[in-house]
Amino acid sequence: MRRGIILICLLALVLAPIPVTAQQPSPITIAVQAGIDGEGTYRPGYWFPVWITLANDGADRQVLIEWRSFGDQGSHQHYRIDLPGGARKRIVLPVVHTETRQALLVTTADGVEVEQQRVPLNPLRDDLHTLGLLSSDPAVLSSLSTANFAVIPLDPALIADDPLLLAAFDVIAVRDLTTDLRPEQRAALLNWVQQGGTLLVGGGTAGETAIRAFADMLPVTVGPLQRGVSVAALERLSGLDGLTNFVPNLTANMVTLRPDARPVTDDSLVSRREVGAGTIIFAAFDLGALRASPAERNLWTNVLSVQPRIAIGPGLRKVFTNLPWDQLNVPLFQHPSTTTLLLLIGAYIVVIGPIQFLILRRWRRLEWAWISTPLLIVTFLGGTFAMGYLLRGSQVQMVQLSMIQTASGNTSALATTLVGVFAPQRQSYTFTFAESAFVSAARRFDESTLSTEYSDTGVTIPDLVLDASDFRTLIVEQSTTNPIQLSHRLERDNQGWRGTLTNTGSTDLYDAMLVWQNEMQWIGRLAPGAEVTINLQDGNDNFLRDFMPGVDGTLFYHTGIIENMFWSIFLPNSSDVRFQIDGPRFPGDQVYLIGWSNEVSPVMQVNSNASTLRGETLYIIELR
User: Fold this and answer.
1) Side-chain half-sphere CA neighbours of 321 within 13 A
2) In CA terms, which of 205, 232, 461, 604 is 20 to 30 Å from 242?
């Protein structure tokens, strides 16, 4: 009976309701908008922004935001930020992926996890041109979706301040702006154009805000609106008859062409201006005015005429290759000669063999060999280790190949730098970069994870453990100033290009060449003040086929690097049929100057200490 009572009491205690204190909600709230459109869209291999808005209704906290991808290997991004009580901050985390459809955003505050968010991602197809649309009507230019374009509506507030975060776009079309652009956004758009982008701005009844935002960049001076404008020139440009039936009464702005611009149509309804390596196009009418016509798709396809661009960073991230990186693996210290190694081995054999025996026999202590032999082995091993340590040194060594892409007359340039870091000792290293640097890992066969941390003060890779004699490679991309000043005169005839080229700057270029598609003219050295005659003839097909007499004693094998870039990066990413059949060629109809310089600027610092840097810079400059 007593046992029954005890059992009933125990069951009552177990089954009795236990009061539970409700978990307090976190005082930190996080809102995420990822992708070039804020909806998760991204172009594989290209950087895209992740906009993160944080608010703190509690005490001061230090917040760490971690972006983890599902499926991609190679790099993880973090952002560390101080978030005082009552503060609200918005940050941009630059992210790059090649093949993932989902990511995880993990937020911790003072080491305690606050929240996890799964972020869906939508990778674009590689064979599509990417067109970003700034318009209150997202259906504008939708006909281009059937013409090899991905038309992506954009929010003006999500236009990034860095041209690298805009590089995924081939075209940005502006019909109207729902909010004004900040000066930093305008500067980034102009920089993006100079690096090869196409900016299309519309006028007409809907284009007032767009014209006001870009008035100083446009190829025309924009005047008042005019009704009843003929569409005959637009009809001829589209190649289809009957446009008048769909647009009987077009309203367009009166325009005056600027000196450096040219008309696309006879009546300047459409005009264009070359800005650096890119183009700004102005349509004097509403970009949505032709949407009812079957001619709209043909018209805009002919107007935009998107040219392929040289995308070095995305190519290194999208294609499995070790070829460019093998060029970085140059000798960073003097190896012992074969003679030295043979002498060391011979001395070891002689000392531990006959010399030891003769000495011990003379002392009549042959039994000491049990002690002397291990001591001699340890001595030689220690000497060998000391020799290796002295040869490696104690200072971190870096080798750097910078590739600068720009256009003649540009003030800005895009720098893609391949960095190799040689670690002399096994220890933890911290790499520090400029605040504007975007750091990633190449897609290699021996790929390993890279963790990059961003903050308000800069970019770092903290606490990276490297073994002794380990060699780590990175890609560092950033916008920079253009150090090359050129003056040129180019004229096209039936046989190719003619003219002159002068180096008006202070940078000495060597192993220089002019390239037009797959035609090459070898220059050699282009010293400051030097002038050369341009004679690029069609029909030679000699780019990377004729012998190129490079300078002796250079750090890198220049021809090998250019060949590797084309065959392992440009060729797999090119949709140009001629490229696939005829071999390496530069994109489009532009003329490029390719040249090398032994001047190199360090893009990173290791452990805040001095390090040895060797490198060269390859310039790819569009002349026309």
Assistant:
1) 23
2) 205
What is the DSSP-derived secondary structure letter of residue 285? B
Lowest mean pLDDT among 110-124, 184-198, 359-373: 359-373
Task: For residue 207, count CB atoms less than 10 angstroms from its CB and return exposed for 0-12, middle for 13-18, buried for 19 or more.
Answer: buried
The rounded distance, in Å, linking the Cα atoms of 75 and 81 is: 20
Nearest alpha carbon to residue 133 among 193, 177, 183, 179: 177
Nearest Cα residue to 219 out of 252, 260, 278: 260
- HSE, CB side, 13 Å, CA atoms: give it for residue 359: 11
The single-letter code of the amino acid at 155 is: D
- In this prediction the pTM is 0.85
* Measured distance CA(406)–CA(619) in Å, rounded: 8
Token code pair at residue 54: 């944080």
Separation of alpha carbons 67 and 241, rounded Å = 52
Please, what is the Cα angle at 481 between 477 and 487, to 5 degrees? 125
Digit-coded pLDDT (tens) for 313-335 = 888 887 766 655 666 666 555 56
Cα dihedral across residues 96, 97, 101, 103: positive or negative: negative
**Buried (b) or exposed (e) across 143-169, using 16+ Cβ within 10 A?**
bbeebebbbbbbebebbbbbbbbbbbb
Q: How far is it between the farthest Cα atoms of the chain?
A: 120
**Do the beta carbons of residue 535 and residue 498 sit within 8 Å?**
yes
CA contacts within 13 A on the Cβ side of 309: 27
Calpha distance 124→592 (Å, rounded): 29
Amino acid at 325: W
Selection from 477, 474, 471 nearest residue 418 by Cα = 474
Structure tokens given for 41: 């869209």
Q: What is the DSSP letter of 304?
A: H
The dihedral over CA atoms of 163, 169, 174, 175, expressed in degrees to the nearest 10, equals -160
Which among 40, 32, 38 is positioned nearest to 124, based on CA atoms?
40
User: What does the pLDDT read at residue 611?
Assistant: 73
Distance CA 130, CA 167 (A): 10
Distance CA 51, CA 30 (A): 10
Full strand arrangement of the beta sheet holding 112-120: 112-120, 102-109, 61-69, 76-83, 451-455, 459-466, 427-433, 604-606
Under DSSP, the state recorded for 572 is T
The pairing of strands 397-407 and 412-423 is antiparallel
Rounded Cα distance, 599 and 592, in Å: 20
Contact 310, 405 (CB under 8 A): yes
The amino acid occupying position 434 is A
- Output the six-digit token pair for 115: 């929240």
CA quadruple 606, 609, 615, 620: dihedral sign: positive
Query: What's the whole-number average pLDDT of the chain?
Result: 84
Structure tokens at 338: 């074969």
Residues comprising the chain, all counted: 624
Per DSSP bridges, beta strands 198-202 and 278-283 are parallel
Rounded to 10 deg, the angle between the 338-350 and 369-392 helix axes is 170
